[in-house]
Amino acid sequence: MACTNHEGITDLDPRSDAHDERPSPVDELDNLQIGELPGQTTKISIQLNPELRQQLEAEILRNADFFAWSSTDMLGIDADFICHKLAIHKEAKPVTQRKRKVGGERQEAIVVETQKLLNAGFIREVRYTTWLANVVLVKKNSGKWRMCVDYTDLNKACPKDSYPLPSIDRLDASDPTSRAPIKQILRKLELAGRMIAWAPKGTGNTEPLSKKLYTRPNVSNNEDPGWMTDIWGYLRERTLPEDKNEAWRIRMRSAKFVIIENELFKCGISSPLLKCLTTSQAAYVIREIHQGICGMHSGARSMAARVLRAGYYWPTLKSDCQNHIQKCKECQQFGNAHRQPPETLHHMMIAWPFSQFRISQALVTDNGQWPDQLPSILWAYHCTPQSITQETPYRLTYGTNAMIPVEVCETSHRRQAFNSKQNAQELAADLDIVDELRDVAQIHKKACKICASRRYNTRVKPRSFQVGDLVWRLLGEARKDTLDGKLAPTWGGPFRVTEDLENGAYRLEELNGKPIPRTWNAMHLKFDFS
């Protein structure tokens, strides 16, 4: 029986706390000073032979430079000895990577681990600029360093013209006379009037020009030309940018567009021609289709399909529909309830029902025949193996299995071969080894909890709120208006978060400042997008 139980434990495999177990030394240890600082010690056994201990201490002190007391002592492997390189095609071009986005909890963990590596000196930050303008250090006359931008590589990559970008010495402004007046003015403001007289000639000529510019009205078209500018220019005037890759991309993209009566259309698949819209026109179409007279507050994919069936197109059609639906108040109010838990499994404080009013002296109740049925229910529970312990409660208490009533009426082999003297000895032996049985059941119980927690946490979608956030609260059946029937809203609010009680519990208040009674779990809350 013991072998069967241990096999069940191996199958459950509770390994959550395995990393906390560390072997401890058998003998008592003594400190051996290696370095000059107080903390630079190691431990050796005090039960060693004196001669062997003396040899061991001499060997450790002779190789004291092998011990690393900080991250700077770990020099690593010389690059001249071995170095790892990536095999990259010569024709491969550098590609600017997009920004990776992670969740809040993962981002905090990444920052903590990265800061540890930075503090240890194992990594350093390297910036690869997009325009090949490298950041370099220029040594000043005082011996200090100044960070400047070297435009040498950028000038080589750009066409030659009469206006090259400045070199490092000009960016550094190494001439001390260029900063002397500014330095004096910033230190002593009362000298500003006298220092202006020594300012370079020609600076006063800009004042009439600035007044002239201010007096004339600034009339310009501030509207963004939009995504159609390059396509329109290529189809009308055959204009292309100087970049070959960008020009090829515009030519390939323009093959799907056509101009009809001074309007740009796209050759679609669902419809022959789709009218191209600007940003303002697209916002009006989305608002009218979703919330207009014929609006139906559908999902993002259905809404995008309705826009295409109406004969309109713009590049960010699907994402704009998703953003608009996410901010729609009616869609938030009647949205589906969350099914994924926002928090992992954790312990909760259980309220004691008798801690305030004490236990009653007598139970006065009228629940029918439940006292008569209670013994049979308890007997069935005590004699049934539990899934969490793999044993019956009766055996965990008395060390042996109970005899069911059917064996009294219909005699079994155990009843026929019953020996009272031998039975008493076996019962005593079972009571002596019942502690081992209980320990195995406890391990089974802990393993089942770990497996259940692991299975539950795989469905968790973290969702936390900060103080001041606006949230929607899930309306239960008790808080819904009965007159609304099945058309009652699913969410109520919005409300404001006033306190974070941790473990997914929050206190809310209405927008006018009236507090909401009781605490609310994150499972019944969602963000308000407005």
Describe the structure.
Among the domains are: 26-65, no CATH class; 134-187, no CATH class; 229-333, Orthogonal Bundle (Endonuclease III, domain 1), CATH 1.10.340.70; 370-457, no CATH class; 470-527, SH3 type barrels (Roll), CATH 2.30.30. A five-stranded antiparallel sheet has the order 12-11-10-9-13, with no helix packed on it. The longest helix has 24 residues, at 434-457. Helix 1 runs parallel beside helix 20 (434-457). It is flat, with a radius of gyration of 40 Å. It has 530 residues and is an alpha+beta fold. The two termini are 64 Å apart. It has 20 helices and 13 strands.
Uncertain residue ranges: 1-19, 168-178, 209-224
CATH architecture of the domain at 229-333: Orthogonal Bundle
Number of helices: 20
CATH fold-type name of the domain at 229-333: Endonuclease III, domain 1
Report the end-to-end length measured between terminal Cα atoms: 64 Å
The pLDDT mean sits at 72
Major sheet, described briefly?
5 strands, antiparallel
GO molecular function: nucleic acid binding
Organism: Cajanus cajan
Biased composition (Basic and acidic residues): 8-25
Pfam family, one: Integrase_H2C2
